[in-house]
Amino acid sequence: MFKPLSLRLKVALLLAALLAVSTLGGLGTLWFINRTQSTYTEIMDRDITALAAAHGLMSALASQKGYVTDYLSTDDPEWLDRMNEHHQAFEHWISRARQSALEEGAHTVLNRIEAEYLRLAFDRGRIVELHQQSREQESAAVHVEYRDRFKKIYELCQDYKRLHERSIAASREEYDTQTRTVAALAWVALSLSAGACVLLAWILFRNILGPIRRLALSPGGQAPGPADAPGFPDEVEALASKVRGLIGDVEQAQGKLDASRQVLAQSEKMATVGKLAAGVAHSIRNPLTSVKMRLFSLERSLELDVAQKEDFAVVAEEIGHIDTIVHNFLEFARRPKLKFRRMDPAEVVDMTLLLLNQRLESGGIKVRFERPERAPHLAIDAEQLKEAFANLLLNALEVMPGGGRIDISMEEGVLEPLGRAVVFRFSDNGPGIAPDIQEKIFEPFFSTKEEGSGLGLSIVRRIVEGHGGWLHVHSKEGDGATFVIALPCERRETWLRS
Question: Rounded to an integer, what distance in angstroms lies between the CA atom of residue 9 and that of residue 17?
Answer without folding.
Answer: 12
